[in-house]
Write a structure and sequence with these properties.
The chain is of the alpha+beta class. It has one domain (5-197): Alpha-Beta Plaits (2-Layer Sandwich), CATH 3.30.70.1290. The protein has seven helices and four strands. It starts with a helix and ends in a 17-residue tail after the last helix. The mean pLDDT is 90.
Length: 203
């Protein structure tokens, strides 16, 4: 079960968070390439400029994002907090996607398993392992034989200079370059306990 804090954690500027959720009853939230693509289009529409994406993966019935909350200008915070701004954008994002998915697939009712969950990643030494965990997740869930080939994660975009939603420059600087990034992802059994950032009920 998720910890209560994974639903109530407050977003603060400059902090890193693991954001995740899955389909109700573990059902699919992506049934076609168009679904995956539209999900990312909506992320850009509602959250680009509010969250810096460090890594992500979309995995058939669930998703993972590792993000950093942007610093907001004073005029943006009039009557608001970083948490209220980000959480409202997130709600609009998920609501829009769920409505479109339901219409497209002729279904009704909730798409996601409750509100989105988020975990504050306050210890920087775990950041690298969480990036790797998120990228390897499609292979772990047997969606593909090699996570490096998965189209719906940030791994390939970090290795490519083409524009994407992921903050490529930050990630490569964090790992120390492309070679170091690839080498870290080649390690199989990281001897680090990141369960605090995985809640125990994730895929």
């Amino acid at each position: 079960m998720s910890h209560l804090s994974h639903y109530l954690t407050q977003f603060q500027s400059g902090n890193f968070y693991h954001i995740y959720n899955r389909g109700v009853d573990r059902k699919l939230i992506f049934k076609s390439r168009a679904n995956y693509f539209y999900f990312m289009v909506l992320w850009g529409r509602y959250l680009e400029g509010y969250l810096d994406v460090v890594s992500y993966s979309l995995n058939a019935n669930h998703f993972h994002f590792l993000v950093r909350v942007r610093h907001f200008e004073a005029y943006q915070l009039v009557g608001e907090t970083p948490h209220s701004i980000v959480s409202e954008r997130m709600k609009r994002f998920f609501r829009t996607y769920a409505l479109a998915f339901n219409k497209n697939h002729g279904r009704t009712g909730s798409l996601f398993e409750g509100p989105f969950k988020r975990v504050h990643v306050g210890d920087s030494k775990y950041l690298s392992y969480l990036v790797q965990y998120i990228h390897v997740n499609p292979e772990k869930n047997q969606l593909i034989h090699d996570f490096k080939m998965w189209d719906w994660s940030s791994y390939k975009f970090i290795l490519s200079p083409r524009h994407s939603l992921v903050d490529r420059d930050f990630v490569l600087e964090w790992f120390g370059g492309i070679k170091e990034f690839e080498l870290f992802h080649s390690k199989k059994n990281q001897d680090v306990d990141i369960r605090a950032f995985l809640s125990g009920d994730e895929d």
